[in-house]
């Protein structure tokens, strides 16, 4: 196995589908931004992707909730990819 493949496997293991704090996931998608900016960016991505927004709403997602459920994380990963 080459090193790139090992890195991919490690990344795959790190971002398993489980509940995440919204801030934790936002910072993973935008590590170079402040936590507030990362949260704003993630919120914008969700709002701009109507299908993603609708699927999250069907799970009971509310913009002010602080934790994404496992199901919500699975949906986010499907649309945005893993961080």
TrEMBL record:
It comes from the Bacteria. InterPro entries: DUF4248 (IPR025342). This is DUF4248 domain-containing protein. It comes from Phocaeicola acetigenes.
């Amino acid at each position: 196995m080459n090193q790139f493949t090992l890195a991919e496997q490690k990344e795959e293991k790190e971002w398993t589908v489980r509940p995440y704090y919204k801030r934790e996931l936002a910072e993973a998608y935008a590590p170079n931004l402040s936590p507030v900016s990362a949260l704003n960016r993630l919120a914008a991505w969700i709002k701009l992707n109507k299908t993603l927004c609708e699927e999250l709403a069907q799970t009971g997602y509310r913009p002010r909730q602080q934790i994404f459920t496992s199901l919500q994380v699975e949906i986010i990963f499907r649309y945005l990819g893993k961080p």
